């Protein structure tokens, strides 16, 4: 019920061929393409290539690639010395922010 | 799949579980409630409970929207389908939920027009295609789902659709957490906070848990690594004597929530003075009713609904399981009498119900992938 699944925005459907009031997008969820209502995240701005969380036909929120990466990095360093973590983190995260690999597969 | 596989990485899962084991004080028993049924489902599906040290006990919370509906309310909703001019619609979760006179699926087999829908917006299509019928949506769900019902109503109003009605059973998670904290037979040390509800309401509404009740709560995602990291964060807080609202799921949940979603809920709904929850009884201001400006689409206004009060069968212990007082297998009916083929309570039907999660997944775990 409260399940929501990540999907990738393929294209924003122009309002003309969509419903008269709502904004929709084509979103690929587990390689199936669906028409999804993007009204709730319109204000944030949605572009093709963005990842969104889909629940009962509506995109609930955008998913941040960077936050996901940082979390995974933190976990991979569990159990390491604190000082070592700080060093690695400062270096890796700083660099990634500059490069910003937004759409690279993990 | 991106944002899924990498959070099921075996090595990281083991590492995180080891870190939890390293952190816990073996002399202390940790009682941690996962509020959301989606979390219960993930815990059993991936066998996460088996990765935890024995002194961490996971208590299943009330966050399963079909499970918390009293049987009387289910029958009230289904009675709407007795009207020949009505097409009753519901999400898949609802279709097998037993009422006194059978489930929606059984009523459908007896000739009632009850249809399963995927999105609340499907109702509008049905309404336009069936102008001579009244489409009634049996709406359920927490704050995650309420915005989509609200947007559907807003759209119905704009399109001037008159043959669509909503039977609102939207409930709110925060008052339920408060009721659990106030319940005298409950001892909980920390909470795994609901992830998708929080995309809508944000993190701030949970602050009373840390301020007034001095318990940690960590808003969590649904993948194995999310849940383990959240448990680790709770254990860390307890070890360090902190009680804070933390957001583990920050790749999706923003501290302030989703403003648009909150706005559309406000536009369409108002708080009910009280609402009955299975197991938790009446909780004040814990559910949403359609407000005056949308009364025309409110099934409770349009149809003559008789309140049906039913108590659960004596031997079933759905209420205790919902409150986390009993484990599913401790219910007298679990397994033999109550199972997914013949469910007695909704907890055995919904994928988010603790009993179904237990029945289907204990002793049988699904693959945790090796990617990354
Ligand atoms: S086993 Fe069945 S009757 Fe018992 S608590 Fe679970 S759903 Fe309710």
From TrEMBL, chain A:
Gene3D superfamilies: 2.30.30.140. GO terms for biological process: protein maturation. GO terms for molecular function: carbon dioxide binding; iron ion binding. It holds the Pfam family HupF_HypC. PROSITE patterns: HUPF_HYPC. It comes from the Bacteria. Belongs to the HupF/HypC family. This is Hydrogenase assembly protein HypC. The lineage of its organism: Bacteria, Pseudomonadati, Verrucomicrobiota, Methylacidiphilae, Methylacidiphilales.
